[in-house]
């Protein structure tokens, strides 16, 4: 059923003149981004309010934003044993001078979260990412018509369940890998031909098996960075589509300081550059994994209470907007976001705008906010 609702009904006052809203880029040529809040999504089916999700479907088609799915903890987070809920709601939104307007809201036949989203000229492909066993292997294509009505169809099936991996495309081929494949962390990569349905194994990823990495196709190179397993990584590797060989890329670092992009989201700016928002703090993440996996009984309970009870700012997630340039194999900062650092948010580029939707702002806690970033070049 179609719904029309102005997301900017509760639009916050613009903060474009505030120092917190824009930090000057570190390097000449970095995109300048001015941010404003753009409201919230309407409630999911059966809910009275939208409390935000992480692990969203996100992409664009015909000038519209397609976003939805995701998961949250509506009845208490990990500290209290609250169950995670995954949603099947998908929204279509139109950007205008007043913010974002919902043009459609539909409910999928399966819940969707933590898959990989790839925007192409023929639609948004969503790969895996579902607690439903059959849907966890599906590739779904989302499109919308000129009126902003959502359409979706099954576009393929993988021979394994896929979660928290990465994907990008070149032509009619999807390149996907890492994450959990049939429930196990993997280094395996594949090429999936959307026209024939044929899946071809590629050379294994040269780093450790991991999930929640970021990746984009820059030129003929699939660039993959960070992610995590029992620790957060800051390394990078590129897969050359011509030679079919992996090679080392620059570690994620700015001014010599390594930065974890575990849980972050990336978008392609052009054929040479990708932009990334978010990322768990490596030291805090590594320490938490070590304690949560070794403590027992009362000690574990006490640690959970203290850890999950921290303020979002105490987790020191990455707030820098980072840009990777493939030609120079180098990272730079384009300032900081003026809102809580999100991980697992929906991140899309629409013209000269970035749209950041929801995301986790500390372990177990989501934001329901949507933000628009207006890109300006020096």
Question: How is the topology of this model organized?
Answer:
Layout (H helix, E strand, L loop, with lengths): L4 E2 L25 E9 L13 E8 L2 E9 L12 E2 L2 E8 L2 E9 L8 E5 L2 E5 L10 E7 L5 E8 L4 E2 L2 E5 L2 E5 L2 E2 L2 E2 L3 E5 L5 E3 L12 E5 L2 E5 L10 E5 L4 E5 L3 E2 L2 E2 L6 E4 L4 E5 L4 H13 L2 H12 L11 E6 L4 E7 L9 E5 L2 E5 L2 E3 L2 E2 L2 E8 L2
Antiparallel strand pairs: 1-7, 2-33, 3-4, 4-5, 4-6, 6-7, 8-9, 9-10, 10-11, 12-15, 13-14, 14-17, 15-16, 17-18, 19-20, 20-21, 21-22, 23-24, 25-26, 26-27, 27-28, 29-30, 30-33, 31-32
List keywords for this structure.
378 residues, six-stranded antiparallel beta sheet, Neuraminidase, 33 strands, four-stranded antiparallel beta sheet, 7% helix, mainly beta
Short description:
By secondary structure, the chain is mainly beta.
Question: How would you describe this protein?
Answer:
There is one protein chain. The chain has helices at residues 282-294, 297-308; strands spanning 5-6, 32-40, 54-61, 64-72, 85-86, 89-96, 99-107, 116-120, 123-127, 138-144, 150-157, 162-163, 166-170, 173-177, 180-181, 184-185, 189-193, 199-201, 214-218, 221-225, 236-240, 245-249, 253-254, 257-258, 265-268, 273-277, 320-325, 330-336, 346-350, 353-357, 360-362, 365-366, 369-376. By secondary structure, it is mainly beta. The chain has a single domain (5-376), classed as Neuraminidase (6 Propeller), CATH 2.120.10.80. Strands 1, 3, 4, 5, 6 and 7 form a six-stranded antiparallel sheet that branches. Strand 19 (214-218) and strand 20 (221-225) form a beta hairpin. Helix 1 (282-294) runs antiparallel to helix 2 (297-308). The longest helix is centred in the last third of the chain and has 13 residues, at 282-294.
């Amino acid at each position: 059923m179609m719904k029309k609702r102005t997301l900017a009904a509760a639009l916050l006052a613009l903060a474009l003149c505030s120092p917190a809203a824009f930090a000057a880029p570190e390097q000449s040529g970095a995109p300048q981004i001015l941010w404003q809040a753009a409201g919230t999504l309407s409630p999911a089916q059966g809910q009275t309010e939208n409390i935000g999700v992480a692990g969203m479907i996100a992409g664009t088609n015909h000038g519209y934003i397609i976003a939805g799915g995701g998961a949250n903890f509506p009845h208490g987070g990990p500290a209290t044993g609250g169950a995670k809920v995954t949603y099947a709601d998908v929204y279509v939104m139109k950007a205008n001078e007043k913010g974002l307007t919902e043009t459609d809201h539909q409910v999928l036949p399966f819940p969707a979260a933590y898959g990989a989203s790839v925007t192409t000229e023929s639609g948004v492909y969503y790969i895996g990412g579902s607690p439903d066993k059959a849907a966890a292997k599906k590739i779904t294509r989302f499109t919308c018509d000129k009126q902003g009505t959502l359409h979706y169809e099954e576009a393929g099936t993988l021979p394994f369940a896929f979660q928290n991996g990465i994907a990008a495309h070149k032509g009619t081929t999807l390149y996907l890998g890492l994450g959990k494949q049939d429930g196990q962390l993997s280094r395996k990569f594949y090429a999936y031909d959307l026209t024939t349905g044929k899946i071809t194994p590629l050379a294994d990823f040269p780093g450790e098996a991991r999930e929640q990495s970021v990746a984009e196709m820059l030129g003929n190179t699939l660039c993959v960075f960070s992610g995590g397993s029992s620790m957060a990584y800051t390394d990078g590797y590129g897969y050359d589509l011509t030679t079919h060989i992996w090679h080392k890329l620059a570690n994620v670092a700015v001014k010599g300081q390594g930065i974890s992009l575990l849980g972050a989201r990336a978008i392609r700016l052009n054929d040479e550059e990708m932009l990334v928002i978010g990322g768990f703090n490596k030291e805090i993440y590594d320490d938490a994994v070590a304690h949560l996996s070794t403590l027992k009984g009362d000690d574990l309970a006490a640690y959970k209470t203290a850890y999950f009870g921290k303020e979002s700012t105490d987790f020191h997630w990455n707030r820098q907007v980072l840009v990777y340039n493939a030609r120079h194999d180098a990272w730079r900062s384009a300032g900081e976001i003026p809102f809580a650092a999100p991980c697992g948010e929906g991140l899309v580029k629409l013209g000269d705008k970035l749209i950041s939707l929801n995301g986790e702002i500390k372990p177990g806690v989501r934001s329901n906010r949507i933000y628009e970033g207006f890109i300006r070049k020096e």
